[in-house]
Write a structure and sequence with these properties.
single chain; alpha/beta; two-stranded antiparallel sheet; 21% strand
Length: 331
C-alpha cells in the first residue's frame, strides 16, 4: 500500500477537507496523501498546511476543472497506483487492502472502484457510481445499485468483485502507467463523464476494470454541482455526445448518435412540460457545442472495443416504460 497515492482534487473546499481528510489519514497510514488544489480562493491551503501537515500539496495555476485539474496535478505524483478521491468522501477501515490485493493479483487490471455508499444515508448506495457502472446501447450510464434516480439499499447484493465498464470519478484507483498511456482525462470535458470516456478508452486497449465490493467509502455527492443544476445538465448531455463520437465503433456511430439526439430532444420536451426551462436551454446549448466541436471529436477517434459496453439495449425504455427500477430487474 506504500505504492498508492491518494490524490484529492480541491477547489474552494476547505471545510470539506477539514471534515473528510481525518478519515483518509486515519485509515490510509501507508499511502501518500496529496491535495491537488485548483487555485482555490478560500482558506483550503492554509487548512491543509496548519491542520494536516503530513498531506502534500500540489497547487495548480488556475481552476482547471476535474479533467485538466487532475492531468496537471498528477504530473507530480510518482506512486504507481493512484486513488483519485473527491473531497467529500469518507473512507473506512482497511479500505485500501482488498483493492491493493486486487491490483497485485492481475497486472491487466487497470482501474478499480470501491463500493460507494451515501454519506447521508449509509445503508443506501450513492448516486455517483454505486457498485460500478455500465452504458446502454445509446450511451446512457447506469450502475449496479442505481438506475437513473432510483437508488438501492445496500443489502449485500453487490458484495463481490465484478467486471464493470466504468468506474466513478468520485473514488477510483488507476495505474499510473495506464493513465498516461491513454493520455489521461480529455480536458475538453472540464467535468462530468470524463471518467467514463477514460474507462472506455482503457477498455478498448484490452485492460480490465473491476468493482471491489469489499472496500467501502461514503460519498456526500453534489458538493460541486447539485443534480438539479442546469450546468450539470449541460455538461452531462454535451460530454455524453462527445464521448459517443470519440468511442463508438464506426459501423454504429451514425445510427446511435442520431438516435441519441432524438432521445435528448424528448428529454428536452419532458423538461419543458415540467417547467424546467433552464434545463431545456441546457440541452439546446449542449447540442450546439456538439455540432460546433464535431470535427474535433471525430479526429480523436480510436479503434473501439465493445467489451462490457452495454448490458441492455435501452435503459430508458426499461426504466420509464417497463418500470424496471433496480439493476437486477433490467435483465
Amino acid at each position: 500500500m506504500n505504492k498508492i497515492a491518494i490524490v484529492i482534487l480541491n477547489w474552494n473546499g476547505g471545510e470539506l477537507l477539514r471534515t473528510f481528510l481525518p478519515s483518509i489519514i486515519q485509515y490510509s497510514p501507508q499511502a501518500t496523501l496529496y491535495v491537488a488544489d485548483n487555485a482555490s480562493t478560500d482558506n483550503s491551503i492554509a487548512i491543509v498546511q496548519q491542520e494536516f501537515p503530513t498531506v502534500k500539496i500540489i497547487q495548480n495555476k488556475a481552476n482547471y476543472g476535474f479533467a485538466k485539474g487532475y492531468n496537471e496535478a498528477l504530473k507530480f505524483v510518482e506512486e504507481p497506483i493512484w486513488a483519485l478521491v473527491n473531497s467529500d468522501v469518507e473512507v473506512t477501515e482497511n479500505w485500501l487492502t482488498p483493492i491493493a490485493e486486487l491490483f497485485e493479483s492481475d497486472e491487466n487490471i487497470a482501474i478499480v472502484q470501491p463500493k460507494i455508499l451515501d454519506f447521508k444515508n449509509k445503508s443506501a448506495f450513492e448516486y455517483a457510481g454505486a457498485a460500478g457502472g455500465f452504458l446502454d446501447k445509446y450511451g446512457f450510464p447506469f450502475c449496479r445499485g442505481r438506475v437513473f434516480t432510483s437508488v438501492e439499499k445496500d443489502n449485500g447484493q453487490f458484495d463481490d468483485i465484478s467486471d464493470i465498464f466504468w468506474a466513478s470519478g468520485a473514488c477510483f484507483f488507476i495505474r499510473k502507467q495506464v493513465f498516461w498511456e491513454k493520455n489521461g482525462f480529455d480536458e475538453d470535458f472540464f467535468a462530468h463523464q470524463e471518467e467514463i470516456d477514460l474507462c472506455w478508452r482503457v477498455n478498448s486497449k484490452g485492460y480490465s476494470i473491476k468493482y471491489c465490493g469489499y472496500s467501502k467509502v461514503y460519498h456526500v455527492g453534489g458538493a460541486t454541482l447539485q443534480v438539479e443544476n442546469p450546468k450539470k445538465t449541460f455538461l452531462n448531455f454535451r460530454n455524453s455526445l462527445w464521448m459517443l463520437t470519440k468511442n463508438l465503433p464506426k459501423e454504429k456511430l451514425f445510427i446511435i448518435l442520431f438516435s441519441r439526439l432524438v432521445l435528448d430532444g424528448l428529454a428536452g420536451v419532458r423538461f419543458f412540460f415540467q417547467g424546467h426551462f433552464s434545463h431545456v436551454w441546457a440541452i439546446l446549448k449542449a447540442h450546439f457545442y456538439f455540432y460546433k466541436n464535431l470535427r474535433k471529436n471525430l479526429r480523436k477517434r480510436k479503434k473501439s472495443n465493445l467489451k462490457h459496453y452495454y448490458k441492455i439495449n435501452s435503459v430508458i425504455y426499461s426504466y420509464f416504460i417497463k418500470g424496471k427500477k433496480t439493476f437486477a430487474e433490467l435483465f
